[in-house]
Design goal:
The protein is mostly beta strands and 273 residues long. The chain is 4% helix and 25% strand. The strands form 5 sheets. It has a 7-stranded antiparallel β-sheet, with no helix packed on it. A 4-stranded antiparallel β-sheet has the order 7-6-5-8, with no helix packed on it. A two-stranded antiparallel ribbon has the order 1-2.
């Protein structure tokens, strides 16, 4: 996958960059594997804004991705690499020997014509899904389950990878993309390799219009608002807030730890910070 820079025909184009899409082999999604995606504009069922700065954007269809990889011991051939507007990673279209088709998250180096399989005895190669018990130490993995059969929850975005660093007492020690080390049961499945589209972080949006296409609306800083609208607003001339950063409702932000204790905390061996 490559990144292209645009000719500076306008101030917005001068700093923008985009994909070359050279890895994409199919322009339109598989119709049976898509569903309509209703846009909320950040509103809940009562019409109240619960997620700010969302709205508009290009119309999309949701691609149904196989995160469970539960069709075991049946080889599948990669017949296309596609763009997915709902995620940063690319997706691969698989065709199994019984002619069933499914989408999976496409790992780096997976090409059209390659064969992948989900099995306890699968080969250690990109795209194959195995239980953590069968994966050697130091091998990069992605698409990792928290609970067996629940489907992958970890390391699904572009360029993500985790590593098995140890195994003991029925658990694998997984170093997450955030550098956190977490215990996950050995019977949980994971895929071999690293998620593709590695250069996704290097893309420069370049202009406000591209954010609007993505469904991101403008936002105003708190310090430029009036005191009635934000705790950090007001003051003569420019002020830096005069207090710790907060949300419009007075809750501290930017550095204050807000994570509540969870039952899964006992599975975290080493925090990311």
């Amino acid at each position: 996958m490559g990144i292209k820079k645009y000719k500076p025909t306008s101030p917005g184009r001068r700093w923008g960059s985009g994909y070359t899409f050279e890895e994409i082999t199919k322009d339109f999604p598989e119709k049976r594997l898509t569903v309509a995606l209703k846009r909320t504009g950040g509103r809940n069922v009562y019409g109240r804004i619960t997620s700010r700065h969302r709205g508009g954007g290009h119309k999309r269809k949701w691609r149904i991705i196989d995160f469970r990889r539960n069709k075991c011991d049946v080889p599948a051939k990669v017949i296309a690499i596609e763009y997915d507007p709902n995620r940063s990673a690319r997706i691969a279209l698989l065709e199994y020997r019984d002619a069933e088709r499914r989408y999976i998250i496409c790992p780096d180096d997976l090409k059209v014509g390659d064969e992948v399989m989900s099995s306890e005895n699968a080969e250690i190669k990109a795209g194959n899904a195995l239980p953590l018990e069968k994966i050697p130490l130091g091998i990069p993995i992605y698409n990792i389950e928290f609970k067996r059969g629940q489907g992958a929850k970890i390391a699904r975005s572009a360029g993500s990878l985790a590593v098995v660093v140890a195994k003991e007492k029925g658990f694998a020690h997984i170093r997450m993309p955030s550098s956190e080390i977490r215990l996950i049961r050995l019977d949980c499945f994971a895929c071999i390799g690293q998620v593709g589209n590695i250069e996704h972080d290097s893309i420069s949006i370049g202009k406000a219009g591209r954010s609007r296409h993505l469904g991101v609306r403008p936002y105003s800083r708190g310090v430029v608002k009036n005191p009635v609208d934000h705790p950090m607003g007001g003051g003569e001339g420019k002020s830096s807030g005069g207090r710790h950063p907060t949300t419009p409702w007075g809750k501290p932000t930017k550095g204050l730890k807000t994570r509540k204790p969870k039952n899964s905390d006992k599975y975290i061996l080493k925090r990311r910070k």
